[in-house]
Amino acid sequence: MSKRQKSDPLKNTFPFPNEIFILGLRPGELAVYSYLLCCANRKTGQCWPSYKAIGKAVGMTENTVAKYVSSLEHKGLIRTEPTTITTKAGIKRNGNLLYTVSPFQDVLKAHYQQQLKLLALEAARARFRPNA
After folding, report:
1. Is the per-residue pLDDT at 15 higher than 90?
2. What's this model's pTM, rounded to 2 decimal places?
3. Using only C-alpha atoms, what is the Rg of the chain?
């Protein structure tokens, strides 16, 4: 009798933080972020899919993907770096972006700090409003 190896049900999964919904991301941002999280190396947080590959996976045009990548970068969820490739003819060309998914605890901490700043600003404004 041969021993069959049990398949690992978590092998083809990736962690998705529950707190992601606190950030108020749009559906398109969630889709692009989840795809990048799925592709990212678990240790480095890095991956380099093309806009075309992301768009095909999440059902968006390349321009729409670019818009959401920019938004995710602005919100601190990812960082991007340009890459270059060298063709067989020795010509340097632009490669895909290198994405680094930020550690989620850092993103959450920055979000809470921003919320506290907004509350402090609102409290300061309230102190200077004339009584109506």
Report:
1. no
2. 0.80
3. 21
